[in-house]
Design brief:
43% of the residues lie in helices and 16% in strands. The chain is built from 18 helices and 16 strands. The chain has helices at 11-22, 38-47, 54-67, 88-96, 107-110, 114-121, 172-208, 294-299, 331-342, 349-357, 363-377, 395-405, 408-414, 426-446, 449-456, 459-462, 465-474, 481-496; strands at residues 71-76, 81-85, 125-128, 140-148, 155-164, 213-217, 222-225, 258-261, 267-272, 276-280, 307-311, 319-322, 325-327, 381-382, 387-388, 391-394.
Amino acid sequence: MAVPKPADVRPPISESWRRSLDAGVDADVEAAPLVFDRDVIADAREAHPLDPHVPVLNGLLRRVADEAEHLLVITDDAGHVLWTQGPPAVRREAAAIGLMDGFRWSEDAVGTNGIGTALAAGRPEFVYAAEHVAHVLHRWSCAGAPVTDPDTGRVIGCIDVSATVRTLHPATAALVATAARLAEARLENEMRRRDERLRERLRPHLRGLRGTGLLVTATGRILTGAADPCLPGGAPAAGKAWPEGWWGRRVTLPACGGTVTLPDGRTAVAEPLGEAFLLRLPGPRRAGGSAPSAGDAAARTAGPGPLLTLSFLGEGRPHAHLGGRPIPLTLRHAEILAMLALHPRGLTGDGLALGLYGEDGSAATVRPEIHRLRQQLGDVVRARPYRLGCTVEADFLTVRRLLDEGDAAGTARLYTGELLPHSDAPAVRAERDELAVRVRRQMLDRGGVGALWAYAQTAPGRDDLEVLERLHDILPPDDPRLAAVASRRDRLLDGEA
C-alpha cells in the first residue's frame, strides 16, 4: 500500500493512511474481523455507557437511515460494532463487508474508515470511496464522530452513518457530530446527577473544613470545594483555599489515599470516600515549626461531627481516617467498626460479642476492646447501645449501594477484594460472603470487559474459572489481556483434569 502525497488527498486521510500502513493493514482485506459472537454481544451492549441512550440516538438518525438508505452504526471505543440500524437492503450489503454487530472497525483492522479514523483522530471524520485503504470499501462512504465520556474525559465510542458512494452526502458528518454531542449531553446529565448526590452527602463536612477541603470524584475530576465564596475571575477570596476556576479540572489520584499535587503546585492529603476523595490542605504550622496535632485536625471539623472513613476491602491492612487524620487499627478494632457501620442504630454488648466471637463471646469480653477503641476515636464511639456518633463513609457500604443501583462499572472500580479477608468474626464472615456473591454475580451478569477484567485482578476473581471463561469469550483476539486470561484459564483447567 502506497501512502498518498499530501497534494493527492486531504491531510486527515493522508495521516490515516500512514497509521494504517504502520499497522500493516492489507488493502485486499475482504471484510472486518469478527470479535463478538452473538452469545456475548448482548452483554457487551448492556455494559456500555451508551446503552440507555441508544433509543434516543436511533430516534434522531433512524429516519435519515431509512429514507436515504443509510446504515446507522454505534461502536465502543475500540471500534467494535455494538448496534446497527438501517433498511434491509443496506444491511445485506453491509453484512458482506462485516459492517454489522460484533465486528471490529478500528484503523488497524480495516484501515482508513469513518469509524476507526474518527476514533484515532478524536474528531468527526468523513471518508469517501477511494479514500478507504481497503479496496472492498471503495463503494462505500462513511461519516463518524467519537463520543467522549464527560466524567473520565476518555472516548467511549463512535456514532457512524455509512452508505454506498452514490447516496451519502458529506454533510452527514455534521449530522453524526450532532448525534455525538447529544449523547455526550445525556451522559453529562447523568454525571451531574451523580455529582449532586455526592455533594449533598458530603456538603456538611466540606462546610466544616472552612475552606481547606476539596471534593474530587474517583475519576480525578474536581467537583467542589468547601462552602466558601470566591472572588470574580477565579481568584480565592481572602482566607479561601480553592480558586473557582479549578472546578471541573482533573488531578491524578492515588489508589488508596496519600498526597496529591494540586493545579497550583501545592500538596493536599487525599482521603478515600468510596466514590470520591476528600482532599485536605495541611494546616498552618505553629510557631517554632511544629505541625498541628491530630486532635487539632479533628477539632477543625464542624457541623455533624467528624467524618469517619473506612477502607476495609482487599488484601491491604485495613485503615481509617477520622476528621482527616489516619487511625491505626488492629484487625479486632476494624471488625468492631465494620459491625457498627453495618448497624447504625447500634448493638448491645451481647449482640456485638455474638458477631465478633460467636456463641463463646460475652459483653464482658467486648468492653475492654471498646475502651481501647474509644481511646483512639474519642466520643464518636457511643454506648448504650454501642454505635458510631458520626457520619461514616465505608468502601464496603458504598459497594453495597452500587450493587443495589446495578452500577457494575462503579462496583468493579471500588471492589478491590473481600471485606477484611483475614477476619474470622462470624458477622464479618457473613457480610463478606454475601458481598462477594453479589459482586461476582453482577460482574458475570452485567459487567463488560473492563469490569470483568478489574474483578479478575482481585483475590476472589483471580482464580474464578467462570469469570476467566467469560473474559476469554468477549476479549477481542488482538487484546493484550487475552494471553493472561488464557494462561490462567488453562492452568485452572489443567488442575481440574
